[in-house]
Structures are given as structure tokens and as C-alpha cells.
Amino acid sequence: MTALRRTRAGAIALTAAAALTLAACSTDSAGPGESAESDDAGESSESSEEAGSGEFGEISVQYSWIKNEEFAGEFYAYENGYYDEAGFSEVIGISGPDTGVAKLLSGTVEVALSDAASVGAAIAEQDAPLTIIGATFQKNPFTILSLADGGNIATPQDLIGKTIGVQDSNASVFSAMLNANGISEDEVTVVPVDFDPTPLMDGQVDGFMAYLTNEALTVELAGYEVTNLAYADNGVPYVAETFTVTDDYLAENPDLLKEFLIAEIKGWSDVFTEPEEDTVSLVETYYSAAASSSEDAIESAFGALDPEKTLLGLQAEKELISTPDTEANGLFTITEDLKNETVASLAAAGWEVSVEDLFDTTLIEEIYAENPDLIDYQG
């Protein structure tokens, strides 16, 4: 059996090593806006200088994944000049996969688009001075993906006796699923995989740790009938794509972060109001620019984007982002109920952390109090 639990120090060491590797090989880390080949795509990093703005200077943002539709809102913020309007001379978007925890703690980046499990584990196990100030995904996007005529894992109890492919960076999140459902680690066989679901399609594993918006669609588009055991519906309903910063950075830069979040709100509002085919085209432009910026760029390993999958991924992530609560309160807001559910999910995984330690949504609440017109992101 593969042990799932590891020390936080070891996990951070692994993350730091991965971060250094990605930083060394990703010349696209100057951000989608700067690295794009077209004039339009390169406009955002240049226009702020031409306009004489940039009072906040440069800020670095760690993305949790490659530059695909998961960051469509960020691409609109570049494309439509929202970062410029906010007062940034440059916003540097760094490709993942990376939780951003190690980079935040080392000061390599100012903001990380992370997840509650990674952040909560760092706080609980290492007393890491990190805070979630908002969340794009209101619903946990992780799933245990299986083939309907194979493992067909429809309930947590179906995991028992199965072989599950889990990426190293997602081991702690998989532990959360087991612990939340009273399943011991020795009841499941875990094998290491990367993010390519071929082992599932080839029958090497019964289940595969995946995103509802990504690998689940890849397998379905390959012609397989799939079964999803969604984390959000099975005891692990935490927020994801979280805007995460250090406690010190939050205390020292509240105005900067408010303007950054406003730019993000505007960008993600465009995702909901612009034609989906235009958004797919925008994503392809920024992804292609990142992939072509260097033969070592992480995106180049994934090949060209599939427009059909990109559209389906975009539609799926909208369902994770938009809820009755966000419709009432605005994008990135986190209700007290959702905060408590998130903390309860982490506790089930063995990470004891309080709502106050994990979240500080003061800035996002102030933004909507001062700019109520931003609440309606669907036009």
C-alpha cells in the first residue's frame, strides 16, 4: 500500500523543488499579457507604462495549473486593461501545477491561486502565516474519476479495495476524501500518476484523481462513459482557486489587494457576459503564447488546446463558480456557512484550523460595500 500522509515540511520541500524547476523553465512566467504573440495579447503590460500608471508596481501571481480556461478571468483582466486600471505596471502570472504555498512563504510570489486543503494543511501543521481572502470556485472541483464499465466508483465506499491513481501534489486532498468518509488508507491501493488519464483508460487503475473541468472531460471526449465521485458532494466541500496571501502582505497592502481583486472581479464578470466562443478564442491565444514562449514552457508539453474540451471546461467551471450565494453577494465571496463547511472538511482530514485562522474576507466585503454595481456579474 502507498502511504498517503507525509510531513508538511516534506510536502513543502517537494513543492519548493517543483517551484524552482517551473521557475527555471517557464519564461512565460512574465504573464499571459506580456508573453502573448499578438499585439492585443501583449497590450496589457505595455499600456500601463504608456498611460503613466502603475502606482502599485509589479505583482506576481502563482497559478494552480497551466494557462487554460481555469484562468479565463485573468486573461480578460489582461486583455481589457483591468490590471492597468487598478494601478499595476505588470502582473506576472506563473504557470502551475503549484499550490503556491512554498512560494508565498518564501516571498517569491505575492498572491497564489491555491486551495483550502493546501493552505489549511500548512496552517495546521506548520502554523504557516497564510490567509484566504476570496475564492473563485465555490465548489470543490476535485473528483475520483472512473469508467462506468470499469471501477464505476459512485460512492465513497466503492473506493474500498480499488486501485486509485493519485498525483503526488494531490495526495493530501485524496487523504481528505478517505478521512471524511471513514476509510482507512490501507483499504485503498494508491499508485502514483501524473495528470494524463491514460492509466485509467488503459485499465491500469480503477479510479483517477481528476478535476471535473479537466481530466473528466478528456476521458469522456475520448468516448468513454464515466462516473464521477465529486468531492464537493461527498464530505469534502471546500473552496478552491483561492486568493491566498501571507498575513504580513495582507496587513501591509490592503489597498493594493483590493484593487487587484476588483480587476479580477471585472475579468471574471466578462467570462459570464462575453460569448463563450470569444472566451475560448481568448484562452487559446494566451495558452498558445505561453506554450510558444519557450520549448521548456510547461504548456508546450500538453500540446494544442482542444476547442471543444475548452468550451466544456469553461461551462463546467461556471457551475463551480456561480452559486445562489455569489449571485446575491458577488464573485469570490465566501459565506459563513461555506467557511464552516470548509473548516469541517479539513478537520475530517486531520487538519484542525479555525475559520479565523484560514479566512479573512474583509477586503472582498469592503469592495462590494463600496462598489455594489460589481455584484451583478452576469449582466
From TrEMBL:
Which reactions fall under this protein's catalytic activity?
A: N(6)-(pyridoxal phosphate)-L-lysyl-[4-amino-5-hydroxymethyl-2-methylpyrimidine phosphate synthase] + L-histidyl-[4-amino-5-hydroxymethyl-2-methylpyrimidine phosphate synthase] + 2 Fe(3+) + 4 H2O = L-lysyl-[4-amino-5-hydroxymethyl-2-methylpyrimidine phosphate synthase] + (2S)-2-amino-5-hydroxy-4-oxopentanoyl-[4-amino-5-hydroxymethyl-2-methylpyrimidine phosphate synthase] + 4-amino-2-methyl-5-(phosphooxymethyl)pyrimidine + 3-oxopropanoate + 2 Fe(2+) + 2 H(+)
* Chain intervals for the UniProt region annotation (Disordered): 28-55
Annotated metabolic or biological route of this protein: Cofactor biosynthesis; thiamine diphosphate biosynthesis
**Residue span(s) of domain SsuA/THI5-like:** 68-277
Q: Which Gene3D superfamilies match?
A: Periplasmic binding protein-like II (3.40.190.10)
Q: Where is the signal peptide?
A: 1-30
Which residue intervals are annotated with compositional bias (Acidic residues) in the record? 36-49
PANTHER family to which the protein is assigned, alphabetical: 4-AMINO-5-HYDROXYMETHYL-2-METHYLPYRIMIDINE PHOSPHATE SYNTHASE THI11-RELATED (PTHR31528)
Which protein family is it in? Belongs to the NMT1/THI5 family.
Job description of the protein = Responsible for the formation of the pyrimidine heterocycle in the thiamine biosynthesis pathway. Catalyzes the formation of hydroxymethylpyrimidine phosphate (HMP-P) from histidine and pyridoxal phosphate (PLP). The protein uses PLP and the active site histidine to form HMP-P, generating an inactive enzyme. The enzyme can only undergo a single turnover, which suggests it is a suicide enzyme.
Name listed for the protein in its UniProt record: Thiamine pyrimidine synthase
